[in-house]
Design brief:
Number of strands: 14
Distance between the termini: 40 Å
Helix content: 25-40%
Strand content: 25-35%
Shape: globular
Oligomer: single chain
Structural class: alpha/beta
Largest sheet: 6 strands, mixed
């Protein structure tokens, strides 16, 4: 399997959000897309899924232009999990089972049921199977959405902040399930992440976006103190931890921190919204 993105441009109104994005993903790797808020990470994912139509450029899966595929055929190639979605009053099992729709002809088959049950078990959701999706927690529902995409058995699994709303234990349970799916089902995964260190733990390659362009793309070796400074505007130490880079920030970005001086001349920092 090969995903190829070439010279992708996308604008909202007159504002260019993606500018000449190009990269390739092959076989069953995991690629994390990283960068500050507002640089076009989610927009890029939505273009890959044909939810946004780029103004120019090509997106191909094994040489097939995804923009020419029907929704049903595209769902066999690409599974997409948005950052947030409102649950409806169906059971967890039936919510995940919807992922089999691209393959259904006359009804639900035994294979559809088996695949759904296997994925729910892998994500630790079996005990919730008969609960209604609108009665479970936000973190649990996030895992149900991931289950629904995995049930599609796509070649490419696209995830927008897959660990959003999850505690640290469920972050790792979910990421391990994604790793298992990648290795056992032969799919690759592309996901946006905010946490560089979590991304490093579970990803093979990293795509950093700045100003709507690809700033850097490669393996763990590209994650350096200079890159963190250039992309995020913060100073950091990047240390080697069990053979992988680990980022330790020094402080908040200087341009985002707000200070006031007390009467005795000392300086105090206000809490910065969005960095808490």
């Amino acid at each position: 399997m090969k995903l190829s993105v070439r010279d992708l441009d996308f604008s909202y109104g007159g504002r260019k959000v993606l500018d000449g994005i190009s990269f390739d993903v092959e076989d069953n790797g995991i690629v994390s897309i990283l960068g500050p808020n507002g640089v076009g990470k989610t927009t890029l994912l939505r273009c890959l899924c044909n939810l946004h139509r780029p103004q120019s450029g090509r997106i191909e899966v094994d040489g097939t232009d995804v923009l020419t595929l029907s929704g049903r055929d595209l769902a066999k190639h690409i599974g997409y999990v948005p950052q947030s979605s409102k649950p409806v009053r169906t059971t967890v099992f039936d919510t995940a089972l919807i992922g089999r729709r691209p393959y259904m002809e006359w009804g639900v088959t035994k294979r559809d049921l088996e695949i759904t049950a296997d994925v729910l078990e892998a994500l630790g959701l079996s005990d919730l199977s008969m609960r209604y999706a609108d009665e479970i927690s936000g973190g649990e529902y996030q895992k149900v959405q991931i289950a629904r995409a995995m049930v599609q058995e796509p070649e490419i699994l696209i995830l927008d902040e897959p660990t959003n709303n999850l505690d640290i234990a469920n972050q790792h349970i979910t990421m391990h399930a994604i790793l298992d799916a990648v290795s056992s089902r032969g799919m690759c995964t592309i996901m946006t992440m905010h946490d560089i260190n979590l991304a490093v733990h579970y990803s093979d390659r990293f795509l950093f976006i700045k100003g709507g362009r690809v700033f850097a793309y490669g393996g763990p070796e590209i994650i350096t103190e200079d890159l963190v400074r250039d992309v995020y505007g913060i100073e950091s130490d990047v240390i080697n931890h069990k053979g992988k880079p680990f980022v330790i920030p020094h402080t908040f970005p200087r341009e985002l921190a707000h200070y006031h001086h007390t009467h005795d001349g000392s300086t105090h920092s206000h809490e910065v919204e969005g960095l808490r």
